[in-house]
Amino acid sequence: MVTSAAEAAQFWVKADKAQKVPQSFYLPDTDPSDKCRVKVATFGGGLRNTEVMVYGIEGGGHTWPGGPQYQSEGNIGPTCRDISASEVIWDFFKRH
């Protein structure tokens, strides 16, 4: 079984009793040459001040944002350079 990002987010929104409607915004396009944009959706107000965050990489490939372009863009699409997924994940867990 495959669960989409939207389904996974809704599972955690319900479990955390977070707000059903997210605050959404685009991060700055710090590297326009990567052809990607990052959209963040935050479902706040959960139990014990929890939040659910979803990062959408628009125009990105099957790569790790901020990581190496390990195959050609023709095979896997571009790597987003606007964020480092590793830093985003670490920042989230540091806050919680």
Q: Structural class per helix/strand content?
A: alpha+beta
Rg over CA atoms: 15 Å
Distance between the termini: 29 Å
Strand ordering within the main sheet: 1-2-3
**Range of strand content:** 15-25%
Total number of strands: 3
Q: Summarize model confidence as the mean pLDDT.
A: 96
Shape: elongated
| Proportion of residues in helical segments | 25-40%
Low-confidence stretches: none
* Number of helices in the DSSP assignment: 3
* H/E element order: HEEEHH
Biggest sheet descriptor: 3 strands, antiparallel
Walk me through this protein's architecture:
It is built from three helices and three strands; from the N terminus they run αβββαα. The protein starts with a helix and ends with a helix. It has 96 residues and is of the alpha+beta class.
Offer a quick outline of the entry:
By secondary structure, this protein is an alpha+beta fold. Helix content is 28%, strand content 19%. It contains 3 helices and 3 strands; from the N terminus they run H-E-E-E-H-H.
Q: Any chance you could write out the topology, listing elements then pairs?
A:
Layout: H1 5-16, E1 23-26, E2 37-43, E3 52-58, H2 73-76, H3 85-95
Antiparallel strand pairs: 1-2, 2-3
Which features characterize this protein?
28% helix; 96 residues; alpha+beta; elongated; 3-stranded antiparallel beta sheet; single chain
